Amino acid sequence: MADATTQHSYEEILMNPIICVASIIAARLAVGLASIRLDVGQGTTVAQAVEGIIIENRKFGELLKTQKNYKKKTIEQLEKTEAPLRKFEIEEDLFRVNSYFKINQENLNLINSIYTTLEQLENYKNEAIDFEQPRVINQVR
Description:
Keywords: ATP synthesis. The chain is mainly alpha-helical and 141 residues long. Helix content is 98%, strand content 0%. The chain has a domain of 98 residues.
């Protein structure tokens, strides 16, 4: 009889619309809460993954910023180094030009000196001819 009573009470419960609706709502609530719990767990996992990505992006951004700073400092150092180098190159060019000018000036002075010496030799030769010419003419006569 217990089985008949139990079956009868199930039938009563199933036939009562309020109990039926309440049990459906309770079942859906239970499934919903379970799925929310799963969703919260998945959401937490996704949130942690996103947080990890954000942290990695920040670290990458910091690395890029550091790299840009190093690049900027390197360029500044190169520019500082280039200025004395350019100055040295200009001084070297000026020295070279001055050296060429001095060499050309010395060559010109040497040419002038040789020309003067040749003129003097020409004058000595003419004086010797003028001095010796009457004596040679007298000897020939």
